[in-house]
Design goal:
Elements: H1 3-18, H2 29-38, E1 49-51, E2 57-59, E3 64-68, E4 72-76, H3 82-100, E5 102-110, H4 117-125, E6 129-134, E7 156-160, E8 168-172, H5 179-188, E9 197-198, E10 204-205, H6 208-216, E11 222-223, H7 234-250, H8 257-260, E12 272-279, H9 289-302, H10 318-330, H11 336-349
Parallel strand pairs: 4-5
Antiparallel strand pairs: 1-2, 3-4, 5-12, 6-7, 6-12, 7-8, 9-10, 9-11
Helix pairs in contact: 3-4, 5-6
Amino acid sequence: MAQDLARTTADLMAGTDLLGIDSHGISMLPAYEEKWRAGTLRLDARARIVKWRAGTLRLDARARIVRDGGASALIDGMGGLGYPVAAQAMNLAVDKALEHGVGAVSVCNSHHFGAAGIYARIAVERGVVGLVTSSANGVIMVPTRGAMPMLGTNPIAFGAPAAYNEPFLLDMATTTVAANKVKVYDFLDQPLPPGWAVDGQGGPVTDAAAAMQFIFTHPEGGLTPLGGTAGMSSHKGYGLAMMAQILGGTLSGSAFAARRAPTRRPGEPDDVGHFFLALNPDAFRAAGSFESDMDDMIDAMHDTPPADPDEPVLVAGEPEAAERARRLRQGIPIPAALAERLRGICERAGAPYLLDGA
């Protein structure tokens, strides 16, 4: 990748790990190498692939704006990794919100962009409310009453700034758990909680390695919608996944993976779609009053009598903020199995492996 795009990608991945979201940080690098070697990160016909040092392919994908409607825009990711185009899109949505009060930007022809919440964080750091949704390439969610997977994890993230409290930052998969969290359990050789994954008969799978097979290899089985079972309102998670698919994929004209999979040819890009909405609170009310009311609401949540005195009531984003502070002091832990895979990537890329002795 070009140096500026690589720097943006690395910063976002490292920022994700700092927040304790180990499933979507540096642990994604092996999967991205596999995509690159399989040709799915190949650029579309309007871009170029040129030979780079040691016979490596340099991915010269740079996103471009293809529609601009004032308060709205559509960006073509040009088949590159999702991080640079997602950061560009969120910042563009914020720019538009600061000018118009509302900014909405869709992205097509993209790939995986990491954790959705890292982009909602961009919005709140610039003082606006942010909403992020995305489609997904993997077909791994089994819809309520279904027997086969039809949707991805289709994340939703939402952020709102406060004056003195940590911002409210919700980042969630619409499945009971993100697939990459199962990957982390596999790296750590730990059993899964019951209800995260199911086999082809809808039975629970608690062995992380077996769950990875149902999620990524077998045509049957997969992850449950948020809620786990119909009795626990999994239809709500299923509905939220559809909402994320419509905003992230259908609105931008990106592929619906379940329909595209049977005809997709080897090496074709994922064509994932993203959606970014920014709202400037000052366009709706007096400057500063939104943040003040956010603080009052967050304080009220903190004042809730806890069921366990040792575990006070928190709001979304606070556990990640605390973990970020801890990891800035102590460092980011890397499981041994992942470290070995990262070492192999460095060797194949001719890059120094800098984690030795860490």
